[in-house]
Amino acid sequence: MSTPTGFDELIHPSTRLSIVAMLFATEWADFPFIRDGLSLSDSALSKQLHTLEEAEYLEIRKEGGGRKRRTKVRLTARGRTAFEGHVAALRAIVEGAVPTVAQLTAPEQQHAEASR
């Protein structure tokens, strides 16, 4: 089976997929909200955000200064499109692996016909 169109190797690792899924549901999210929601360390989250930002999937905005400095993150249009394509590709993979109703009932039908 070939990889479906839209499958995104950059988004696929579970941590990045979780980040992008969380951001897909909102306009902007604060760094602590993402960190705590996904149970990540600051450094682990920073690394993943940087990778996604380099691919232009995220926009990172730093506001304020000193102890009141806040980091906010959002998906770009490119990031939203990539996530939608990846989800569609995952659905295609899952649907291709799930037997159809006809395949599930075929042995039962064959048994019934053999019994006649």
Quick recap:
The chain is of the alpha+beta class and 116 residues long.
Multimer state: single chain
Q: Could you give the order of the helices and strands? A: HEHHEEHH
Helix content: 55-70%
How many alpha or pi helices?
Answer: 5
Counting DSSP E segments of at least 2 residues, the number of strands comes to 3
Proportion of strand residues: 5-15%
Strand neighbour order, sheet with most strands? 1-3-2
The overall average pLDDT, rounded, is 88
Largest sheet, described in full?
Answer: 3 strands, antiparallel
Return the structural class.
alpha+beta
Radius of gyration: 21 Å
Q: Choose one word for the global shape.
A: elongated
Which regions have little confidence, pLDDT < 50, spanning 5+ residues? none
Describe the fold and architecture.
By secondary structure, the protein is of the alpha+beta class. It is about 60% helix and about 10% strand. The protein has five helices and three strands; from the N terminus they run αβααββαα. The protein has helices spanning about 15-25, 30-40, 40-55, 75-95, 100-115, and strands spanning about 30, 60-65, 70-75. It has a three-stranded antiparallel sheet with strand order 1-3-2. The chain is elongated, with a radius of gyration of 21 Å. The two termini are about 40 Å apart. The model has no long low-confidence stretch (mean pLDDT about 90).
